[in-house]
Amino acid sequence: MLAWELWAAFFGYAIPMVISPGPGNTLLATTGGRLGIRGSVPFWLGFEAANLVLCLIYGLGLGRVLHDYPAIEQALKWVGVLYLLYLAKGFLMPSAKGTAEERDTSCLGFGAGFFCVMVNPKIHSMIVVMFAQFLKPGAGMATQVMLLTAAFLVVCVACHFPWIAGGKVVLQRLRSPRALRIQGWIFGLCMLGVATYVALT
Q1: Which InterPro entries does the record cross-reference, listed alphabetically (predicted)?
Q2: Phi-psi bin for 109: left (phi > 0), alpha (psi -120 to 50), beta?
Q3: Each residue's pLDDT tens digit, 158-190
Q4: Beta strands of the chain (E only): which ranges?
Q5: What angle do CA 166, 126, 188 make, to 5 degrees?
Q6: Domain ranges in the chain?
Q7: CA 4: distance to chain centroid?
Q8: What is the DSSP letter of 63?
Q9: pTM, whole model, 2 decimals?
Q10: Tens-digit pLDDT profile for residues 94-107
Q11: Burial (CB count within 10 angstroms: exposed 0-12, middle 13-18, buried 19+), residue 194
C-alpha cells in the first residue's frame, strides 16, 4: 500500500493537471454544450477508456518504447494537430445533411473521445510523469500500477464532469440557429487555436 503522504502528493499533482484547460477539456465542454450531459457520455467514456489504456501502457513499462524513439512522440503530436483541424472544419463548415444533433453525435462519439486522448501529448506526458514520480521501486509494481490507475481515473471522472456540465449550462441556453452558428465558429476557432498551440510547442 502507498503511504498517505504519497497519496496527498499524488492528488496534489493529478487534480490540477487534469482539471486545467487544454484540448481535451475544451472538447468535453463542447460535447456538453452541443449534446448535453447524457449525449456526451459516449465521448466521455471513450476519453476515460483511453486514459485507462495509457495508464496501463506506461505503468507496466511498455511506454519505454516511446522514450527510446522520440519520433513516435512527434508523430503523435502531428496526428493530434491534424485531428484538431478536422474537428475545427466540422464546426466551421457543418454538413448540410442531417440535423445538427445527428452531425454532432457522429463526430463526438466513443471513438472520437478515445482518439482525442491517444494523440494528446499533454496527457501522455502527464501520465509518464505520474508513474515516474509515484511508483516506488522494490514494492509490488502491478499492485501500485492498479492503485494509481484507479485513483487517476477517479480524478479524471471528477474533474472532467464539471467541464461537460459547464458546457451544458452555458451553451445549451443558446439554441437558436444563429446562436448555434456562432457556437460553431467559436468552437472551430478554439480548435484552430489549440492546434496552433500544439504545433508550436
Answers
A1: LeuE-type
A2: beta
A3: 999 999 998 888 766 666 677 667 767 776 776
A4: none
A5: 45
A6: 24-200
A7: 28
A8: T
A9: 0.71
A10: 544 444 444 444 56
A11: buried
